[in-house]
Amino acid sequence: MAALNEVRAAGGVVWRPTDGGTEVCLVHRPRYGDWTLPKGKLEPGEHPLRAAVREVAEESDVRAVPQVRLPAVRYVSEGRPKVVDYWSMRAVGTGGFQPDTEVDDVRWLDVDEAVRLVSYPHDAEVLGAFAALPAVTGTVLLLRHARAGKRATWSGPDTARPLDATGRAQARALAPLVALTGPVRLLSASVRRCVQTLDPAAALLDLPIEVAGDFDEPVGGQQPEERALAAAARLAEFATGGQPVAVCSQGKVIPGALAQLTGSAGSTGSTGSAGSTGEFTTPKAGGWLLAFTAGGLVATDRL
């Protein structure tokens, strides 16, 4: 019963670089007379990440790109349990803030000043978690293709197996989530179902889909470990470019690649087989937001 009454919300620690370091965004709400991080309630059926980006834009008029999931906050609001998911977000544009009855002021402050100004200890804790992050050099949205029926019922070559009706609907639903991460490139394994999964996002973003065989499942004569290493190396390569990238790959590649990137390949007992029960097993139309620093992968956020 408690879960049914739980209020879900999402928001962000929005940051921008300055000559002296980094500033973060706080908003003032006249109804409560408080200074807080921009956030708001999820709409019915809305993904928390989409809600976080939307609420940041609505409250602060800042367009931001999510990078790293921060600790969620739990508290009681108006007699109901409330959970707020937060992401670190890089500000990429503003529309010109106009005060209203919900938010009447926005301030950009360094983290120490923001910690002193916020009205709630849990906001200070989220800011502390943000401050502890190393500098993110790049992000990659890594997706597994949407549903494509059963291999046994497809008479043609498996590389040509298309998305089914459910898969096409999943691909359409993924497109706005892909767009939130601000990719400048879309890359896909060479199989048809991976390319089709990115088609709606490509149309939405007006970007071409680049085919990258490094993200294909192993074929005859190839070892799964080799394919995992190749995919991991390519993901790390994209991360050094400083611009977000979205990649669609396959179920026998993603877990092994993530295990390589996190240094857990020797402990998972799997290089990413479809039946793997490892921590990086990814359902169809599922994915990960990966954040990289100069030292490598720093965060894996399951979406």
Automatic annotation (TrEMBL):
Cited CDD domains: HP_PGM_like, NUDIX_Ap6A_hydrolase
Single GO BP term: AMP biosynthetic process
Family annotation (Pfam families): His_Phos_1 (PF00300), NUDIX (PF00293)
Matching InterPro entries: His_Pase_superF_clade-1, His_PPase_superfam, NUDIX_hydrolase-like_dom_sf, NUDIX_hydrolase_CS, NUDIX_hydrolase_dom, Nudix_hydrolase_domain
Domain Nudix hydrolase: 5-131
A GO term, aspect molecular function: bis(5'-nucleosyl)-tetraphosphatase (asymmetrical) activity
Keywords: Hydrolase
Protein name as catalogued: 8-oxo-dGTP diphosphatase
Species the sequence originates in: Micromonospora yangpuensis
Top-level taxonomy: Bacteria, Bacillati, Actinomycetota, Actinomycetes, Micromonosporales
